[in-house]
Amino acid sequence: MNDKLRDFLYERQSLLNVFIAVFTAMIVGTLVIYFMGYDILESYEALYQGAFKGRFNFGGTLERFVPLLLSGLAFAVASKASIFNIGVEGQLYFGAITAAFFGYIIKGVPSLVHIPVTLLLAAAAGGLWAVIPGFLRAKYNVNEVTTTIMLNYVAIFFVGYIVNHPFKNPNVGVPQTPNVQPTARLPKIMLPSRANIGIFIALALLVFFIWLLNKTTFGYKVRAVGFNPFFTDYVGVKSKLIMVLTMFLSGAIGGVLGGVEVLGIHGYVLDNFSPGYGFDGIMVGLLARNNLKALPFVAFFLAALRSGAINMERFTGVPKEVIGVIEAVIILLAAAEVIVEIKKRKSSDKGGVEVG
Amino acid sequence: MGDLGLIINLNLLRATLRMSTPIALAAMGLVITEQAAITNIGIEGIMLIGAFVAVAVSYFTGSWVLGILSSVAAGVVVALFMAVIHLKFKADVFVAGIAINLFAIEFTRFLLRNIFNTAGSFYDPNIVPIPSITIPIIDKIPVLGTLLSGFKLTDYLGIILVFVTYFILYKTVWGLRIRFVGIHPLSAETGGVHVNIKKYQAMILSGIFGGLAGAHLSLGYTRQFIENMTNGRGFIGVAAMYFGGVTPINTWFASLFFGFTEALGNNLQTFGLPSQFMLMIPYIATVVAITIGMIRKQKREKNNLL
Amino acid sequence: MYVEKGVKKLAPIVEMKGIYKEFPNVVALNHVDFSLEKGEIHALIGENGAGKSTLMKILYGIYDQDEGTVKINGEEKNISDAREAMRLGIGMVHQEFMLAETMTVLENIILGFEPNKHKLLDYDKAYSEVMDYSEKYGFEIRPNSKVINISVGEAQRVEILKALYRGAEVLILDEPTAVLTPQETEELFKIIRSLKENGKTIIFISHKLDEVLEIADRITVMRKGNKVETLSQNDATKEKLAYLMVGREVFLDFEIEENEPGDRILEVKNLNVFGRRKLSNLKDVSFEIKEGEILGVAGIDGNGQTELVEALTGLRKVESGEIKIRGEEITNKSPLEIRHHGVSHIPEDRNKTGLCKELTIQENLIANKLPDDPYSSKIGIINFKRVKNFAEELIDKFDIRPPKTDVKMQNLSGGNAQKVIVAREVAEDAGLIIASQPTRGIDIGSIEFIRSVLLDERKAGKAVLLVSADLEEILSLSDRIIVMYEGEIQGTLDIEEANENNLGLMMTGGNPDFKGGVTA
Predict the structure, then answer these.
(1) C220 has a pLDDT exceeding 90
(2) Residues A179-191: pLDDT tens digits?
(3) Whether the model pTM is above 0.90
(4) Parallel, antiparallel, or unpaired for β C170-174 and C201-206?
(5) Domain ranges of chain A
(6) Would you say residue C401 lies in a domain?
(7) Is there a contact between B105 and A324 if contact means CB atoms under 8 Å apart?
């Protein structure tokens, strides 16, 4: 291989692997559509139109984009400190129930106050919930994957209790909370779709975290702790505290996600309302290789696929589950660290080998 | 009044055993892989695919035996797939497991739609379930009969397999080597043991257990397939495995305990009482148990300086 | 037992010829010959980095040699891995035991060679087999205890027994006494002798000359990748061995100016610290350093130097004793607080501790300033312009290549990476610089540069604690030298009275009474 090309690919091989993953998955999806006897071009056209054409369809894409981006962000932020936060699902439940509560209980304040206050409280709730596994990991080295999975269920059951009992809307049969005040609802931006200003909140958070991680001392500490905690301990950074704080921030993003869903989409919390937003974030984070700047593109791509799938089913009959298969193949391939491996050119001077 | 209490209690114990079977089956597979240093959280997905395959094959062939066998075969395939992603393509074991779980949900949803043209769940009288076993004589004894007889074949199989797992791990050459692979791979390697081959073998066993657990869920515990019907049972299996200290017998007790909390939770619910706190117990117990384990380990390392 | 073929003189059981092994930048073994007679106890001695372990790892199949041949019983063999070595009857007991702690002694021994009936473990047979071995060679072991509950000495016996169980005829013991108490060492020697009586061949790697002289039939000395000499026990004396081991070096020339030490900066009194191993526990260590002075800490790795540095820098807990900087107590303070007292630290493990290879040069250069943030606004926004200026200044001053601030550390050579660390720590303007193995594994140019930096700091009135396993470095830079052995200070020497011989002797546990003069 040409040396320059090899260097170029070596630098970007994780990107290359992601690209191969997505490409392969699309081929698989295309083959599935073909063998099920549908017209490929027609299907993709319907998919495209369903994702982008008209306010309702495009709005639908934007609406799906928000939770994908936020959960991906939550996952990626924790991963910067080498923490694997599988607990976004639980954190968003706490954010959601908190938002539902304060969205309902606070009365007589303008939206400009009501919305930020409610979302901040939701963020705090999600963040505090995430501190538990963060602390256990930092202090006792308890594997956070296991604890966050377990705590997801605790959160879902806890919210289930709140929704079924003390905070149940007495006027409806199903277990759900009362509607939040109109002042707490996020304004819609693309009627008749449900897309709302949550998208601006999500993008603002993304920009904020890119800035925080790259331009501030705190962000530097987070990245350094993630790469090498022995190093940070040695230079005098409190690595464990940084871990816990990072987990708080990650959980807080999850909390905001819950809050935005409640204030923007539903207006209340329903038992088991999340279709697995928290787990979507793992997929988004994995595909973006936890590169924050890549997150919105990945999230948008997946949102468009999902949104378009509904239209595709309606007009061509291709079941929307095909998109699920494509996603599944993407994530399976994206999980692999290396699909192709570009070896680095032999460098002349490596040094630092211990000889015994 | 006393009689009523007795019946409720007996039914509760019966339900406990029923609830614990899928957890215990999954957990046995997990114990084996964990002993080989693979935390197979993909068990959830393996079970789900197994559950679907079992229902599909039973429906088309009219044979629950074939249903179980295909489910086991599917479990092995999926487990091997995950093993390749983890061991060959170097994916983090948790990432691989989560990928398998998401894959299983989407894939079964797709198949449900395409094969049975339905969404949500599939039930049909042509699905032949796993039979219940009535134990002669004991069945007639009042209390004992309720407690011991009339369970599904796989319920009994689950209990037997607990002891089989114990036997495999602690009484066979293979088990000894697997345990070394997990604790001290280097010493296993210098002892001539091929570590990766052993890990693949452990994953195959885990696929068998996962497949059985899935078949039991859809053909034994119920008689239908529902989207995402495992609903975290694989994760409770993970919890039971940790709570039981990664040994078969203790893990079985943990599964029974978790089955009990689930059964009691359901009972509370039928009386309109909040069940959620009951249902949380396995998860909280596991977090606490793992934490205590790690604290102990840290203390031991401090005191154990050579 | 090996069948003796023919009537001719028996071929050596192991014969290694012209073994050459290169690691990136370092020649680890330079055409080394090594031969082992059946039934002998053969000691292999040398400093850290002399190549002993590398040579043995080639014999045991862990490394492949670049050149040279290995013959076993006169037949050339290609030993591809440890399994192959085992098949050829070579066993090795590593310094780090390869035992699973939560398993029993018996299970550890039989692993891979389990007695079985139809693949079911036959514990009874295993037990009796293992007991047979233990009686034959005079081992005291308890097969059914878990490894976690047995002593280090017993664990070592288990390792030896394991190797024998796997059919070892040649047994490599890698510094077996490093982890043992004197009583346990006696016990081990009994076993080694009984192994010899039973026809086994032993390779005994060690630093400790007393022990070598006590147990070995022949001794091979290695230095810097070369075999120096093989002598029989009768021809060897402690002084001679120490001399051969350390050798005469061509010193890099430094002009060391006379310097009157100033005020006392660091004072360490009766320091006791738990170490990674029993023998690296610090026991009542006391010393001091003054301004404008370089205090060398000599010693073979693992004798407590690492623990000393970690205790001084707040990375390891001090059990008792006190550490004072300019009279202020810093014992058991956090690394950050200790840095605030004016202590800089160049750590011994460059890659694990000293730097973050995924971050850029400039990010590594400001790492120790992170906690206090002089390059950031009040709310912690980094002023990249100032950081860049600062980094460019240091890159220029320390001649770091490539001279770019935003290159990731992983693209730097060992020497340049080490310069980044040195630059960062020296730029701190601390009163005390703790430099641990500051030039290990880097190129000559960087070595020279870093050494001259340390001398400049001394000139500027800084105190330097120089921990190094490299005697040449210690001798060419230090004003005074303390020698550490088994966690204690074996002795303190002024530079005028120190030489390779008396240092070598003290490092290997010799009597610090050097004044009588040592001849080679």
Answers:
(1) yes
(2) 998 988 888 888 8
(3) no
(4) parallel
(5) 69-300
(6) no
(7) yes
